Input
Amino acid sequence: MSSPHGVYLPLDDLHFSRYTLFDTASEIIKLGGKNIFMDEVHKYPGWAREIKLIYDRYPDVHVVFTGSSVIDISKEEAELGRRAALYDLHGLSYREYLNLAYRQNLEAVSLESILSESGPNFRSLFPSDFMPLKYFTEYLEFGYYPFFTEYRETFHLRLRQMTRFIVEHDLSEIKEFDLRNAKKMLQLIAIIAAQVPFKPNYSKLAEKTGLHRNSLASYMQYLDRAKIINLLYPRSFSTAALQKPEKIYFENTNLMYALAEPKPEIGAVREAFAYNQLSQSHSVRHSKIGDFMIDGKWIFEVGGESKTRKQLSGGENEFLIVDNLEFPVMHKIPLWILGFLY
Output
């Protein structure tokens, strides 16, 4: 038998109803395995303890594991000690989509350089033949999840199925979640799809879904952790309490196209894209002047190409984020470039 230098282990497989993770990994390593990739770790009770045992017993073996965003894997850091580096895996940025789908070799750009550069200086950061808007609409509808490389005709169907699976299965991993409310949660998602972005009224949402008003704050948090929605909080947001968000967005625009009927409103799509891409590496809060306050110092107002600075106060740290614009012009920043932040 040849040596399995790399092995993929889905931990929700029936194999693990009979054999332990540690014993399985030990057998693989005895056969020469050096790299073990574990998926769905949250489906295996005591996964952190056994991964720790593997690491301690076999320090030369490389272990990579993934789990649902619904669970807080960071809570297992005490069990793993300093043995694991934990990462939050985001969907594809517009830049990553272009690199993967069209074999381009585009580099990320920092927000600071985007806001400070304009005109010819900024254009020099990209290839001379680069057409930034050519595939942008395509990305908004299909580019966030890597399985766009498969059957595009069923892409949105898969997203709808994925959303149902998260609600009916992944959320069950949360001790406080009542699985009997799964159907109501799906109804809540449908209501959100028809209204985003909007400021939530928990009393009305409770009436429409049948969920208890006092539970809605927790359920919104669950959907946020599951990467189905994004909750936008005020600048004074405190993590110590379940504070009501100022607005609710879908986590990404692909979900909007999959779940909204018949199609999402373009203004909502623009804001959801901006929030999604900015929030990966920056603090995004609600602003009373524009749509977003970034890192406590920049104000962004998102809109179409005809958008003006009328709503803003005219400060140096206030910017329009504009769709259908190729490159920055003064305080007008093209929407697509936010997709190059990572």
User: Anything to note?
Assistant: Residues 155-168 form the longest helix (14 residues).
